[in-house]
Amino acid sequence: MSWDPVYQLIKTIPRGQVTTYGLLAKALKIRGGARTVGHAMAATPSGEGIPWHRVVAAGGRLIIREPIASKQRKLLESEGVPMRNGRVEISSCLWTPPSARAKPRKKASPRTRTASER
User: Fold this and answer.
1) 88 has which bridge partners?
2) How far apart are CA 80 and CA 96, in angstroms?
3) Which among 50, 83, 90, 48 is positioned nearest to 69, based on CA atoms?
4) What is the pLDDT at residue 111?
5) Exposed, middle or buried, 89 (CB in 10 Å: 0-12/13-18/19+)?
6) What is the pLDDT of residue 91?
7) Average pLDDT of 23-42?
8) Exposed, middle or buried by CB within 10 Å (0-12, 13-18, 19+), for 111?
9) Smaller CB count within 10 Å for the chain: N or C?
10) SS (H, E, C) 13-56
């Protein structure tokens, strides 16, 4: 499987904002969900301008092990991402990929009455 769609979507995350592994998986309809996106993140090639640090776990947790977690924290802070107790304050900087945003529900069509109801 090519991780290119994951990396292309990550490149669209605006500076100063973050998204989650789960939202990326939902947007790209990836089987295996957030865990599979995590595998893609672990394989992120360096030097290609992929802002890997803008992807966090649910609730703003940084789940990458040290020393990379410290680097992620510093990069996020340098972009102005608010942190508290080692977590991203996700409520103020969450970016939702366009294809993962809730779509407006269609109104249900009127139910057709059966012959006995007429």
Assistant:
1) 83
2) 18
3) 83
4) 57
5) middle
6) 92
7) 91
8) exposed
9) C
10) CCCCCEEEHHHHHHHHCCCCHHHHHHHHHHCCCCCCCCCHHHEE
